[in-house]
């Protein structure tokens, strides 16, 4: 105990002495770790809060149900209900019609939005989901059964700007219906926007007579849920296609919906922490080199290797602890602020209609603290081991500093990392996540950065030879000689900025590739002159056959294609698959669909199966490969289909199937359509066509969009969804530049004697500053060139491995040259100025003192 | 106290600096070692300190073969039994003088308060009374070397190793430092080896030895009075 106390005192003296003398370096490392931890923690808190709230809101719609029975399509015939309600093992069956109902186009800022409305049987629902029961006015208790009444949650009333007693207009097909707001709900989650109606009224108003979305079941106590689920599944097989699901399925479905997005965002947040780790490494490594003489002296005086190792790791742990704690506080504040002002949606659009609040979770907080501390210790480990293993006698002499990094010059670990990264990138996903893809990115990054010292020595030696031969001045020679002969320290200094720049290049190429591909895809899928619909989304939009006929016959319209969009449940634990029926040219489906190239020739398709064309996600998630025969629940019994080709879909990552509208209508009997694509006659402008269409009896209910508008809107949504990505990249760059500042100022301090000597032999301050700027600029230029190369390699993994494995879509590579060159130029200037500013202080110090100091 | 038995050492580039060197230093003896540059004087000190190992032969301190010890054991013996004074002072720049001087005591497990008190006394003894809270940057070269001597002696080591301790000092300061070092070594009852190029410095020791390729050759004892006359 006594010895530890003394060791602790000595340790504290050394640690505080170092920090007092180099506050800026220590502060920079702390800020870097704090920013990294803060971003990671904030994004995790926001995503978790949003996800939990979204799940809770979804769960609250099911009340206390043990099981749910639903169809593979959004609705099914209610004739199933009596059978389940009278089942001996079922205590209570609660029929539900759940619809997303469009708001009319004149709803101001809520235009293109939908309101979730549940049609409930009040007598059943009061037992199964009592929170969802409406509260009528005291003098109108029967409103609860009234066919024109709707009860809204507080969030829905606030969002719609209405109160009890007000009318509420909703869009059903081309009609606008008006309901009366009869009151609020017993209890709804904060931010949850829902409306509740009597189920019969809902079926009638929303044209879903005899249709249900699901039947919730509460089982007789003591019934084994798993056994009953299996038995009921078999019973229902005789009546058609039904799915019996439980809460776990629902949770898995919600988790699957946003998992890839959340994981990718978390990985991106880790980039900032990763860059911070390089900064800690460079700060610690340079600090160890600067204090090499001190450590050697301590070893001579009797400090053991283990004690020295512990001392350096302790200093790293102190940096990591302070940085991590600051990061946790900052992260919590960022998350609370972001959730308060922007809700839980970080741009992905996965969590609409909830208002989550941040929750303090001790276990997650500890994990992020350990992550920050662990990364700092990792950054400190290599310098600490080097310092502890150094032989004290040679280390006491001057000029041994670069020897401390001599192991870095060995290229083999870097080559092994690069090779392993290349190999891992070829491995398949794990649980639908590109785990090996991320590992490959990390290995390529580490390998590339580890190769920097070797490359620096090779490149700058060659330049030095050329400069020496041509007899350039002393200062360029001095700058180049240092870079060529002591490249290790310089390379360590650049580690952080190289890491961040590489990732910025990789992300920029990935985002640009994605954006260009989406733009081209939009051009391909929007060939018509004008698009018409009754509402942007929702379950109640659509055109009747007589309306489609009237549309097609409108003067100025040369051709009209109609679309029917619907949803299918193929796997209860996965999000719905989109089913789109439309005219498709059998001879050349590529005319209509953006095919990936995997297609079966029309002549080779068998006549006994209807062709469908599936998105890439269907191949990954359901193995719907070209030529495979499948059944789809579009009719009873489910008809056979053959996968005729694969098309690219950037709109639906969980899968989409297209088939010919005529096939769909013949098989399902469903004659309704949702959207229309119109080609105009020559000489007719879109404005003239719109004016003609508005003169139709239902014209005022139609919404019109030109392809350019849809493209512009889609791309602005795309940019918004990547806004948080740009923010994280920016922070990574700032951390990288902080690293440059810390490293160059540390080096400039360590080179005080060198500068003092140069001043003694007649070199001016300006010349020394010029030399520092040249060193910074040359090194950063090499870093930028390497960052480009490395970033390009990593972007290949992001584009061709991570994206297809995460989101199930492929894209073609595009390089955003102007953006990359701008960032590179800004970085070069910043690094040179940082190096210059860092050296200015040292060069201004006392020349005589600097050569007299023994270190 | 110290016994060198047939010591041989070559540098990693193959150049041999010490060959078959033998010598015995008695307890309380203070010797100066002179010799040409590169002959191996500093290497000899590093071997004695256990910072380096001889290729051949043995070094015994109080009967213990240093090369038989592992790094930790050698470090612990060095911490307890040896004191170092360097040409370049090597004072930790971010610690105060009292903290610098108390380092060996702390490493040897002495209570912090006791170590600080002893450091203040040692600073008094080396002529730096009341300077304990100062930082090294506030001192002259001679004063820094006084601190280094205080640090070398504070834990009462049995052997002091000094490598050109006055190489960076002016003659007057050098003479003061050498006298201080001799006095403190004698007062503490320690033995000492002083490596130097300077005859004046060597004259402060009890005996002068010359290191050549053939080994250590004694030149005989010189008393301090002679030093004052030559000084």
Please provide a written account of the structure.
The complex is a heterodimer of chains A (855) and B (231). Chain A has 855 residues and is an alpha+beta fold. Among the domains of chain A are: 1-63 and 258-398, no CATH class; 72-241, no CATH class; 530-705, no CATH class. Helix content of chain A is 56%, strand content 15%. Chain A has 27 helices and 22 strands. In chain A, strands 1, 3, 4, 5, 6, 7, 8, 9, 11 and 12 form a 10-stranded mixed sheet that branches. In chain A, strand 7 and strand 8 (175-185) form a beta hairpin. In chain A, helix 8 runs antiparallel to helix 17 (487-525) and helix 8 (247-290) packs parallel to helix 23. The radius of gyration of chain A is 33 Å and the shape is elongated. Mean pLDDT of chain A is 82; it is low at 1-5 and 847-855. Chain B is α/β, with parallel strands linked by helices. Chain B has one domain (2-230): P-loop containing nucleotide triphosphate hydrolases (Rossmann fold), CATH 3.40.50. Chain B has 8 helices and 10 strands. A 6-stranded mixed sheet of chain B has the order 6-7-8-3-9-10. In chain B, strands 2-1-4-5 form a 4-stranded antiparallel sheet, covered by helices on one side. In chain B, helix 3 (97-107) crosses helix 4, helix 3 (97-107) runs parallel beside helix 5 and helix 5 (141-153) runs parallel beside helix 6. The two termini of chain B are 31 Å apart. The A-B interface holds A 2-3, 5-7, 9-10, 13-14, 17-18, 20-21, 293-294, 297-306, 391-393, 396, 849, 852-855 and B 46, 49, 51-52, 71-72, 75-76, 78-80, 84, 86, 88-95, 99, 103-104, 106-112, 115, 137, 141, 144, 151.
